[in-house]
Design brief:
Strand content: 5-15%
Number of strands: 7
Radius of gyration: 23 Å
Order of helices and strands: HHHHHHHEHEHHEEHEHEHE
Number of helices: 13
CATH class of the largest domain: Alpha Beta
Distance between the termini: 59 Å
Number of domains: 2
CATH superfamily of the largest domain: P-loop containing nucleotide triphosphate hydrolases
Strand order of the largest sheet: 3-4-2-5-1-6-7
Structural class: alpha/beta
CATH topology of the largest domain: Rossmann fold
Largest sheet: 7 strands, mixed
């Protein structure tokens, strides 16, 4: 009993009060101490929240309020003025949009149907190029990290990699270099601005992508599984070779990505059958519309 009490008391001492919205605005230089006093007066007069009063006085914007709330509720996203990443990462820049709500719904389905068990890796595959696979992989990785999952996004498209461009990374060393023995897993990059998101870019575009994937990816994933809760893998389109099938077989599961008015149903069915032939489970399918 005494040991339990000691642990509880220790935790209570470490508990910190949440930072107020006013303090966040002050620390960010958005308001002055004098502004804060004016806001508090209006807040008491109108019986409204601090943020609403500050906005009514024209001192802050809706974006400022959302940014402060994201810090209070530990829900990281980027302000529209930040240029750290590609604007295609809507989960980072437009977290309250309908598209991102759809991504959260997909995340929920995957948590229930795949990552709930011992599975940690999932390949994203598509029949052809231009069907939104890399975009879905990147944004899905962001929403998983916002959930608090230790998330790793691997760009295993060693033919036409995209993730380094989306996250504006210096694509010097990456997966291909690790598989070729030219680098180690220190090439995994923690993405600033997000609590639990890391990216392993593709690295040097090699002349032998299939051979590299075949001989080294399984060992690489085995090392990474102990460090992450969710590992999402971007792959080349199926029309470019058998890379995606090999990658999916090492993951055990694949998420099919198709594009509305472009992807042919027959191509999707053939890819599903090819994946199943390699022992990979088709977890589901995503239809993009853009």
């Amino acid at each position: 009993m005494h040991a339990v009490d000691a642990i509880i008391n220790k935790r209570m001492v470490k508990t910190e009060s949440p930072i107020s919205m006013g303090a966040l605005f002050l620390d960010a230089g958005k308001i002055s101490v004098g502004d804060a006093e004016r806001i508090i007066v209006l807040q008491k007069q109108k019986g409204i929240r601090f943020g609403e009063a500050a906005k009514a006085l024209g001192l802050i914007t809706d974006d400022d309020i959302q940014e402060a709330l994201s810090q209070q509720f530990d829900f990281p996203f980027l302000a529209a003025s930040e240029e750290n990443f590609s604007r295609e990462l809507i989960a980072a820049y437009q977290p309250f949009s309908a598209q991102v709500e759809a991504l959260r719904a997909l995340r929920g389905q995957l948590m229930l149907r795949w990552f709930l068990d011992a599975h940690k890796t999932l390949a994203l595959v598509s029949p052809r190029q231009g069907e939104g696979r890399s975009n879905i992989a990147a944004n899905l990785a962001i929403v998983f990290s916002q959930l608090g999952e230790r998330t790793l996004l691997i760009d295993a498209d060693l033919r036409q990699p995209q993730q380094h461009a989306l996250f504006k990374l210096h694509n010097v060393y990456g997966l291909s270099d690790v598989l070729a023995g030219r680098a180690d897993l220190t090439g995994v990059t923690r993405i600033p601005g997000f609590r639990d998101l890391s990216v392993l870019p593709a690295g040097t575009v090699p002349p032998n992508p299939v051979e590299l994937i075949s001989r080294g990816l399984k060992t690489c994933l085995h090392q990474l599984r102990s460090q992450f809760d969710v590992i999402l893998i971007d792959t080349p389109s199926a029309e470019q070779g058998i890379d995606a099938q090999i990658i999916a077989s090492h993951c055990g599961g694949a998420l099919l990505v198709a594009r509305q008015h472009k992807t042919r149903l027959n191509d999707l069915q053939l890819l599903k059958e090819a994946l199943q032939d390699t022992g990979s489970q088709c977890v589901g399918a995503v239809l993009t519309d853009f």
